[in-house]
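Risk register update: the risk of archive-format incompatibility is retired. Evidence:
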Amino acid sequence: MKFILGQKIGMTRIFDEEGRNFAVTKVRVLPCTVSKIITKDHEGYKAVQIKATKQSGEKEKIVRINEFRVDAPNRYKVGEAITLKQFKAGELVTVTGTSKGKGFSGTIKRHGFHRGPAGHGSNNVREPGSIGAQQPQRVVLGKKMAGKMGVETVTVKNLRLVDLDNEIMLIAGSIPGNNKSIVKVFGKGEKAEEIIDTVAIEEALAMEKMKEDAAAEKAEKAEKAEDAEEKSEITNE
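Archived output:
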């Protein structure tokens, strides 16, 4: 199990050797150290607690403390540094963060409801509609209604770690959270599958098929011309 805490910087776009471009998220790794070893004998589960710090003037300030479930927490020691060296480019990682707050939102934005008819005197364009029934005579718990949206813990799995450079992780795709927010990055070291440019392959196959069809059509025309020439020679004789 590999894990570390980082700070989301923002998104950018990079190009590979073949000229393909990818949208990536930049995550700056924070200085992390092991603060506690959690064992099954005392807490009932196995985990490692780490703390992320940053320099605030002459003092070191703790910005986040998180736990990561591991099978063998005794392999770590309190005070041990967690660095970026454990990760390698091309691995699959999981990122957990707090999603952006979107304020008080209606049912269309929050739950994907359809809007009502806008014409013919309709008064139900963006309203949620009925929220109750005959029985029970109350609003059922968990009813999808308008309310505060966002600021939730979101986990995105199987993101490709594109590159590592100077304490910066480039992760393919988007991850939850605002810029400068703290995110958890962890994984099992699984290698990501090679990205295949299916569009380019389909275009090459289509071009090859067009060439084959053109060659076949040309051969067919030549054969017909030969047959016509033989028939004309026979009639002349």
